[in-house]
Specification:
The structure is a homodimer of 344-residue chains. Chain A contains twelve helices and twelve strands. Chain A is of the alpha/beta class and 344 residues long. The radius of gyration of chain A is 26 Å and the shape is elongated. Chains A and B meet through helix 4, helix 5, strand 2 and helix 11 of A and helix 4, helix 5, strand 2 and helix 11 of B. The structure holds a DNA duplex (30 and 30 nucleotides).
Chain lengths: 344, 344
DNA sequence: GCTCTGAATGTAAACGATTACATTAATCTA
DNA sequence: TAGATTAATGTAATCGTTTACATTCAGAGC
């Protein structure tokens, strides 16, 4: 009900009988002010309930002490783990995180540029897909004054000047596919994310490369989009199950979609891995809990987050763009129960 | 490499040969300025790559066009759904959301107060537990000048002046327990969240009430804390399985913990629901996908988010605190396969 | 007591936008 | 065309801090 205007530094100064400069120093450089004055100011602060206006501070300092993380979905367990890594690093600095969720929509270069130029943050971590990812983003990037680091999503070569941290998605997907092949599978389907998602493209590329190398053909209709979520994958899986040349294994570009597949397969009265094998990607915390437990590729999510954040802070503190060497972290095949030899 | 200082309105004005006021008007009230001038300014904006400094705008306007959502965990699928509801409402206003994650830690009254007075946002949505939740928060709340709405977590009666939107957790938990009882279970355990979590307390209360009404006793060691996550629940479940008087059903305060239980039960060579029934709470998207699919209480998560946001914006726009009637939304028992009659 | 020195405090400019009010330009009316 | 009216633009104050610089103060040494 009160709706009191909040006290400003001026009112504190008045009550304490000092200048606003002294109040400011009491807060930011307490040892520059005499004990006696300081206690008087402290009392005034307490009396008024004063707290600095952070917006005014940011404005004056030209620094927000905020970093922005642009992520595809706050509900995705994989990205949540990446965030944990980021948070652990941010905790060592006096910074807050603001999260910008794209909801798995690919951001346009304009949107990225608009965010970067808004000065709402001192640095940016992009975990989301950007499209088109060519010269436009590059152009925006050159105008930007805050550092940017990309995590997870690789970006086309022309953007190599923006630093990134990620796994080798192509190699990991090849490895996953090879594992299915080594189990005796010859008919392997792939469910990808949105066609604009680069990280999905890389995984698809790895899948195709492995199939090609093993001289296995990919039938029309074996590669489908699943929108990176349960529903989309279930739908795609439904189509695969009706395919005249039904695959014996399905490789999903992320775990969430693998869960969707397993659900759909069960719903159709078939079982994993007896009738169909399912392979995921990410190793989210639900993968192990599934029944059967999901065989998948583990990404060092937390570590990715940490490294991304460390690079960003290094850049923020040095006042320059971070060096642009991409950091490639190791992935790992996690064998569980969702893949078995096909009945022939 | 460029590290160009970003253009300010002053530079644009200079290039266009007008005053800064005119530039400002071009952006905010374009029809107040002559066509000819406008195009000249537009050109200058393009040339300089100018974009308003949002911090300066917020500062001057005394309005950030940002709302802050304080949530326990961005990885929790339930809260993610609530966020979807919030986002859908926010999309209709010219606002951004900034997310403050507490990582399931209970916030102290001081932290809540600090956030509220920081003026980083025009309004706040609290989805997280606050403790202690008595007069201290109330005191802070009286000083606040931005509106606050609480979602999901109920708050002790003394805080009734802060509006909230949630389900009737006591009734829902009673209903869940009744369902187990009606299936013939007499030995029912409960896994709660942190002891400071109010919403969990309400659910525990409902469980105890139902047991009491059915004249069933709750043995020492049947009520455990599971930290609202998979691991914590698995650990708690392990203890329950070793209990001398082993329960035939476990009711978990959220689905995440139910998944942890199911995993642990399977790991110990037992099966759900044949050996032990498991009941969850929330109906997250993974509940249906589990094998067996999880029987649980569905909360209207998205709707909660929408209602919370609507109330908040109403308050922001009217410049007053929202009215304090709590809004209670309906829950629903979702029967799937994880609960069956006990053998014996 | 006087000067000197360093510490403590004060003064005022700046950050980049918005906006009330003043001024100038364009248009209309008679 | 003068005068009135309205539209377009400019001037300058303002928001709440921080901080360079100026000033004042307290104590030391003589």
């Amino acid at each position: 009900m009160s709706q009191l205007a909040q006290a400003s530094i001026k009112q504190v100064a008045e009550i304490a009988g000092v200048s606003i400069a002294t109040v400011s120093r009491c807060i930011n450089n307490p040892d520059q002010v005499r004990e006696r004055t300081r206690t008087r100011v402290q009392a005034a602060i307490l009396e008024t309930g004063y707290s600095p206006n952070t917006i005014a501070q940011s404005f004056r300092r030209g620094r927000t002490n905020v970093i922005m993380v642009v992520m595809p979905s706050i509900g995705d367990p994989f990205f949540t783990d990446v965030m944990q890594g980021i948070r652990s690093v941010v905790a060592d600095h006096d910074y807050s995180i603001i999260i910008n969720e794209t909801n798995f929509n690919t951001m346009t270069a304009e949107e990225v540029g608009a965010i970067m130029v808004s000065r709402q943050a001192d640095g940016f971590i992009l975990l989301a897909s950007i499209f088109p990812f060519g010269n436009e983003v590059l152009a925006k990037a050159e105008k930007r004054s805050q550092p940017v680091v990309i995590g997870c999503e690789t970006i086309s070569a022309s953007l190599a000047d923006i630093p990134s941290v990620h796994i080798d998605n192509v190699a990991a997907a090849r490895e996953a596919t090879d594992y299915l092949i080594s189990n005796g599978h010859k008919k392997i389907a792939f469910i990808s994310g949105q066609s604009t998602s680069l990280l999905t493209k890389d995984r698809e590329f790895g899948y195709r490369a492995a199939m090609h190398k093993a001289q296995l053909s990919i039938k029309e209709g074996w590669v489908l989009e699943g929108n990176l979520n349960i529903e989309g994958a279930a739908k795609a899986c439904g189509k695969l199950l009706k395919h005249p040349d039904r695959p014996t294994a399905i490789f999903c570009a992320n775990d969430e979609m693998a869960l969707g597949c397993m659900h759909e397969i069960k719903r159709k009265g078939l079982s994993v891995p007896e009738d169909i094998s399912v392979m995921g990607f990410d190793d989210i915390r639900y993968a192990e809990v599934m029944n059967p437990a999901l065989t998948t590729i583990a990404q060092p999510a937390r570590q990715i987050g940490e490294r991304v954040a460390v690079r960003l802070f290094k850049a923020i503190e040095s006042g320059s763009q971070p060096n642009n060497q991409p950091v490639i972290l190791p992935h790992k095949l996690i064998v569980r129960q969702s893949v078995a030899k096909p009945v022939s």
